[in-house]
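A favour, since you know our structure tokens better than I do. Could you add the entry underneath, on a fresh line?
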Amino acid sequence: MGPIDRREREKEKLKKEILDAARHLFARDGYDSVTIRAIAERIEYSPRTIYLHFKDKEDLFRELCQHDFNEFGQRFAKLASVKDPVQRLKALGLTYAEFGEDFPNHYRLMFMSEAPDYEGKGEEEWKGNPEMDAYAFLLATAAEAIATGRLLPAYKDPELLAQTVWAGIHGVLALHFSKCNDPWVKWRPLKKRVKTMVDLQVDGLLAAPVKATKRPSPNIGKKGA
């Protein structure tokens, strides 16, 4: 491996350190409170080093979000192979929670932090595309589940269905992150709480199966039967 390859590898390594430090600080302190200097101090470099990779804090934040949402979306995309949309809806809830458990700083930044007010650039190519946009994938799954005719008649709005299922799982995670060390509550394992929420939500959407009418035996009522 030549010196150019080595420099590129070191450059990418430093960029990852910057993104990891920024993610931690944004999730902990909020976007407005974090400065480029604070990010530089966390990785023990000068602010000038940050500006070699990013134009400003907004540019850094945008790339960080695009990176994390892309990673998140890839997990969802793997569930396209689940043919039954009702079961896929359950799998999406479990996968969403697994991502939050595996990457708590990613999750806090993506779903529990107020984003800066900026025009999203470069988002047009993936927004609304189920192969890249996790919410679009959830929405498409909700629409498919409704189309099966297996849900209660009241649930006909895919947007409402998707947002409600999302809110339920998010509530479990948000409570976990904010109160998991509170000794006042005897917390059950996170995975059990998540699965219980998923089952309650999705199974609660299903209409009761129509019971087949039992036909009388053709011999009933006949003499000598």
About this structure: Residues 3-29 form the longest helix (27 residues). The radius of gyration is 24 Å. Residues 66-205 form a domain with the Tetracycline Repressor; domain 2 fold (CATH 1.10.357.10).
